[in-house]
Amino acid sequence: MEHDVLLQMTDICKEFPGVKALDHVSLTVKRGTVHALMGENGAGKSTLMKCLFGMYSKDEGRIFLEGKEVNFKNSKEALENGVAMVHQELNQALKRNVMDNIWLGRYPKIGGVMVDEKKMYDDTMKVFNDLGIDVDPKRIMSTMPVSQRQMAEIAKAVSFNSKIIVFDEPTSSLTEEEVEHLFKIINMLRDRGCGIIYISHKMAEILRISDEVTVMRDGTWVATEPASELTTEKIIKLMVGRELGNQFPPKTNKPGKVALEVSGLTAQYSLLKDVSFNVHEGEIVGLAGLDGSGRTECLETLFGIATKKAGTIKLDGREVRNRNARESIKNGFALLTEERRATGIFGILSIRENTVISSLKKHLRGLYLSDKSMKEDTQWSIDAMRTKTPTQETKIRSLSGGNQQKVILGRWLLTEPEVLLLDEPTRGIDVGAKYEIYQLIIDLANKGKVVIMVSSEMPELLGVCDRILVMSGGRLAGEVDARNTTQEEIMTLAAKYV
Questions:
Q1: pLDDT digits (tens, 9 = 90+) for 403-415
Q2: How much is the pLDDT for 217?
Q3: Is the distance from CB of 127 to CB of 155 less than 8 angstroms?
Q4: Taking 90 as the threshold, does the pLDDT of residue 200 lie above it?
Q5: Predicted model pTM
Q6: Which of 266, 15, 67, 291 has its CA nearest to residue 172?
Q7: What's the order of all strands across the beta sheet hosting 258-267?
Q8: Which of 168, 148, 167, 147 is nearest to 158 (CA)?
């Protein structure tokens, strides 16, 4: 059956100061299909969707929804007309509960005055039951893991009875089990006649879930093909305009003597309990585990932004306290956080300010900061990370998510850390940029640095790390040699204390 056209975007152009983000891009989405949108970071995928959703006003082009021309002035107007978007960077009222977040701005009222809490609860449960989501509507958002918050955001999009739903990197913080659940929801929505626009860098997902794939590069349309006719290699070639060989660089690092010793690490306010391990100089150690296993909590407790209840941390035989971020940086530790928008970037500041903010002492000349020195370090970071940006003065919030991640990684490298703690370092980053970040991690290990890396992507841990520590229920369930293990062995350990 030929699907009728639900959404048509033709010749969309959008320019920001110093950069043409979209250059005559067109996209057609048919009813009851999943249309994947792919491209490197900075290709213009999210910008195109923000033009559809009314977050940006397009400079040129036309948008048709069910044959009628639309031009949404804001996201509220888009939602009211059946266009919803689940953003990669969650923007939620964290101090409010789940149902408040879902019905914000459209609370059911009693007599048009008081909020009808019972109806709001019942309506939330109806959506959750429909989608098979197991979340308490009265739970405060800030107490939930990112994956559950994302499920709440998906439920919110569905609650508008949307015709078009945009998913921007929806699986970047989900476990394999949660990804399967999300795909069930997407297939259910497709069967109802929704048009799904699916943005992701994960090739296997795209080829599995999509009906059609549109590839963008540097703000332009490259190709639209049926997913059944594509392969991973063909998509990569369309995305980057070149062949990409091996997914991971060769491991050239040679671990030396023990550098970091962690003994009995227990957190005050999280499930982390009695974790002990050693890491050698020049070694890359992965932290695997299911969502909520204590991976992130382990890094945060090591770095001192989560309170330590017990345990010792030694670096090169000397005990370090790491009671807060300032002390940790002074002791040679650096932490790349999982949620870059909430805890990584200073959105209103420039790329230069975001790059040098953790190493300002290096740039002090007497009482003043040296502009020349800060420019040089920022340029080094931009070049080393291959960050796509018009200038150093560009506000970081105007960059794509992957380019923001590169700026933060560059920031930490400039502090010259001895221990680099990475929480999902390639989350939401395209395949070409991932390779560059893997190479940087290996280069750091070659210099004798200690690298501990959390990732939800098993192939990434196996491809980059020397050893993998597996967390389960806040405890260390075991460790494996990355060269001689299997995904099955890691998953068995991950389920040990669940």
A1: 888 898 889 888 8
A2: 86
A3: yes
A4: no
A5: 0.63
A6: 291
A7: 275-280, 258-267, 308-315, 318-320
A8: 167
